[in-house]
């Protein structure tokens, strides 16, 4: 059993289920990316894995133990979570932000220790943010700001890094900057990374393990070459595509052809209609 896993999760908002009887095991030391259409439950899965949401049924297990039964500080020592749009107090510098990541390792009124300083300096170096350490967050570009938040998560010194759409609102260059950084952190330091991405080609390029979510359930999961097929994209997104090989990374790459124009009851139309009537 992998260290982070969910069994038979159901999560509902206002009694309407978003996730239903979902089981998922996260591969250790890999990059796992959740894909799926808007509203399918990707962010809900991520937030539930990180104990930001409590399931209505089922459980999340961390190292074989129910995560809801673990002390919050123990969870924070193993798992760092970045939401879609994190916020910080005005005037906070990058280095000050990083020190927030050390809170799970400190007592209530503890001062910064030598280990805190070492980890903050390491996190700044790993994210290439040393030269921006004394700048405030509002003085940074979008990509730099996202790297600062990742540095804070690294300073937290966890095995797991969970990110909800880390490239949202970034231009293409900054998207690639953040994704390359995350891949480098995974390859160099062995961090297990779980994230939600909307861009399917980026997901196929950077994932070791893809999880396709459809209507609150896992539709398919596995290596990108196994999962990323024209049939899956049609069934999950209602989009017709040609799947070719990425000429740089040799991963699957899709070329959109058009929206689903099927006559009759294709998988996507049938199951989308069923969900909308429940």
Characterize the structure shown.
There is one protein chain. By secondary structure, this protein is of the alpha/beta class. The protein has a single domain, classed as 3-Layer(aba) Sandwich (Rossmann fold), CATH 3.40.50.300. Helix content is 35%, strand content 27%. The chain is built from 10 helices and 12 strands. The chain has helices spanning 42-49, 72-78, 94-100, 114-126, 142-155, 172-189, 200-206, 224-227, 230-237, 267-276, and strands at residues 4-13, 16-26, 31-35, 57-62, 65-66, 79-82, 160-164, 192-196, 209-214, 217-222, 239-245, 252-259. The protein has a 6-stranded mixed beta sheet with strand order 6-7-8-3-9-10, sandwiched between helices. α3 packs parallel to α5, α4 (114-126) runs antiparallel to α5 (142-155) and α5 (142-155) runs parallel beside α6 (172-189). The radius of gyration is 20 Å and the shape is globular. It starts with a strand and ends with a helix.
Briefly note the structural class of the backbone.
alpha/beta
The CATH topology, please? Rossmann fold
The total beta strand count reads: 12
Low-confidence stretches: none
The largest sheet is: 6 strands, mixed
How are helices and strands ordered from N to C?
Answer: EEEHEEHEHHHEHEHEEHHEEH
Determine the number of helices (DSSP H or I, runs of at least 4 residues).
Answer: 10
What is the arithmetic mean of pLDDT?
89
Radius of gyration from CA coordinates: 20 Å
Tell the overall outline: globular
Q: What count of structural domains?
A: 1
């Amino acid at each position: 059993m992998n260290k982070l896993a969910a069994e038979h999760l159901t999560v509902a908002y206002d009694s309407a289920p978003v996730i239903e009887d979902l089981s998922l095991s996260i591969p250790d030391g890999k990059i796992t990316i959740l894909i799926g259409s808007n509203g399918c439950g990707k962010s809900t899965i991520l937030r539930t894995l990180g104990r930001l949401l409590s399931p209505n049924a089922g459980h999340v297990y961390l190292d074989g133990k129910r995560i809801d039964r673990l002390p919050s500080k123990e969870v924070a020592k193993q798992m760092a979570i970045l939401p879609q749009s994190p916020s910080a107090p005005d005037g906070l510098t990058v280095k000050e932000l990083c020190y927030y990541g050390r809170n799970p390792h400190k007592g209530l009124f503890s001062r910064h220790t030598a280990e805190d300083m070492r980890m903050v300096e390491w996190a700044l170096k790993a994210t290439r943010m040393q030269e921006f350490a004394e700048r405030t967050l509002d003085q940074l570009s979008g990509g730099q700001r996202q790297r600062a938040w990742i540095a804070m998560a690294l300073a937290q010194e966890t095995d797991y890094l969970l990110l909800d759409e880390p490239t949202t609102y970034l231009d293409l260059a900054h998207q690639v900057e953040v994704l390359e950084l995350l891949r480098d952190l995974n390859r160099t330091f062995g961090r297990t990374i779980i994230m939600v991405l909307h861009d399917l080609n980026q997901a196929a390029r950077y994932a070791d393990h893809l999880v396709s979510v459809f209507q609150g359930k896992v539709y398919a999961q596995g290596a990108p070459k196994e999962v990323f097929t024209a049939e899956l994209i049609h069934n999950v997104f209602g989009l017709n595509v040609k799947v070719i090989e990425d000429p740089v990374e040799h991963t699957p790459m899709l070329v959109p052809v058009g929206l689903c124009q099927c006559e009759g009851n294709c998988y996507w139309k049938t199951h989308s209609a069923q969900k909308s009537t429940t």
